Amino acid sequence: MEFGLLKSQVKSKFVLESLCKILPTRDRLSERGIDIDTQCPLCDEEVETPVHALRDCRIASEVLSIAHLALVPLASQYSSVQAWLPDRFRHLSKESFSILLMLLWAIWRNRNSQVWDEVSQSAAVIVPITLGWWEEFRSAHVSSHAPRQPILQKWKKPSAGFVKLNVDASFNLASRRAGLGGVFRDSQGVKEACSRHLVPLIVESDCLNIVQALHSNSLDNSVLGYLIGDLRQLLLTAFAASLIHVRRSANGVAHILARDAGVNHPAFEFLSVAPPFVEAAISFDCTIN
Ligand SMILES: [Zn+2]
């Protein structure tokens, strides 16, 4: 209990500091007359402002992306922490917002570790450690009689001899572009999955409506009926194909690929080397499995 209480106090104090504009980022130290290099100590690419340190710097952005806590609406709509955090508060559940605060604290802690000890950790390490802290905090404050729900469903590697395909789609309202993303992996990783026959195949999607429609035997009379029929046939012809619904947190790589495809890139595929923007999510999937 004492540990949880300490975490709670640290978290509250940290958020208060952010909102009161006294987080000692380098731009603020410079404004106060301290002779200091204002570049970000982690990426050395931009001036270290609070919003850069907590949200936009590469590791921070990967942490929030893996945890799916910064995506809707686009974080870039808000140019300050003071504007962004209240928006997140409005759009996230109470538990998700609490996890976000703890992740921001971990991001700042990682930044300080770089400043004082010249050691920083990757997003794939920060996220599971912080969620472990959150579990400790929660178990200290939630009644032991209350049902326990997993806060983050993890991607699980398939058994040896199986290949898993995670898929997702996105639609960008502003650009009116759709994006599709998919990743094949076997028990050894992306590279091995691509060099083998893709059977037996397990398909995972976080779209519950589509998974339910494809599992149903009844005629689909919706405007997507013909498409659903074709997809059912495809699943039947793929050897031992199974279709499973998973939470978005277990479908992170496909989600990030689909989101990126809807905004930035023409169609592309990768074999052994994943594009940089999805490396952290792939590493995260491979932790604690
Ligand atoms: Zn940076």
UniProtKB/TrEMBL annotation:
InterPro entries: RNase_H-like_dom_plant, RNase_H-like_EbsB-rel, RNaseH-like_sf, RNaseH_domain, RVT-Znf. This is RNase H type-1 domain-containing protein. It comes from the Eukaryota. Residues 188-261 form the RNase H type-1 domain. One of its GO terms (molecular function) is nucleic acid binding. It holds the Pfam family RVT_3. Residues 16-63 form the Reverse transcriptase zinc-binding domain.
